Amino acid sequence: MITQVPLWQHFLFAAFATCGFAIFFNVQPKLLLWEALVGAIGWVVYLIGIDHYENPMIYSFLAAAVISFCSEILARKLKQPAILFVIPGILPLVPGVGLYQTVYLIMFKKYTLAASTGTKAVIVSMGIALGILVIASLSRVFNLYKLKKAFSRNDAAKYVDWVNLGKNRTGNKFVLNRDELNEHLNSLNIDTDSYKKLDLEKMEKNSSQDIILDDDTLKESE
Within 10 Å of residue 102's Cβ, how many Cβ atoms? Predict the structure, then answer.
């Protein structure tokens, strides 16, 4: 029944729904259009997958992977955390109706049908989680590659930009302990001793770029 509605209508409704979720999460107005596009594209991929695959794990995985991939790209282009696009984008995919129907059927003691409906909802949820996990892992590998490449070329600015892996943004800054930073580099088998004298705090950086803060600096600011 859901596939009988024209695809362009699905695209618009999914965009509006995703935009609504983004507003609920207090996303900046300038990002709402991108949020809507990510959610709409993911939902269209989900519907196309329903037509081509019988296994819900496959089409839920593909839709979540597309959403996560688009989110990673937008995160780099717009200098925002990827999670800001992932969460509103995947919410239209969450099988809320399936979970509701499962509980409803259990209340009326229709256990066989409830088990079938509930199993499908769980499989869809697993596919969504797996799609996000795979793309996020690949993104982390890409980050490590870019970090190692920038560090080998003595590019200090990119060294700072790429070492901040998956950290929470505070304003326009990534907060990262220097010891933790060196642990990331040591995991890449890079010798950091020759770079300890580099004063990263004196680098000329604009306000939109990331910086490194020590624990002592954080305590003084508090």
Answer: 21
CA angle 198, 203, 206 (to 5 degrees): 155
Tokens of 222: 């508090």
- Three-state secondary-structure class, residue 169: strand
Q: Is the Cβ–Cβ distance between 85 and 70 less than 8 Å?
A: yes
Model-level pTM? 0.69
Select from 92, 90, 82 the least CA-distant residue to 31. Answer: 82
Cβ-based neighbour number of residue 209 at 10 Å = 15
pLDDT along the chain (222 residues), means of 10: 75 93 91 94 93 91 96 89 92 90 91 92 94 91 74 58 48 51 58 48 42 49 54
- Is residue 95 a contact partner of residue 120, using CB atoms and an 8 Å limit? yes
Residue 105 is which amino acid? L
Alpha helices (H) along the chain: 7-24, 32-52, 56-78, 83-90, 96-107, 111-152, 156-163, 178-186, 215-221
Among 82, 43, 76, 34, residue whose Cα is nearest residue 62: 43
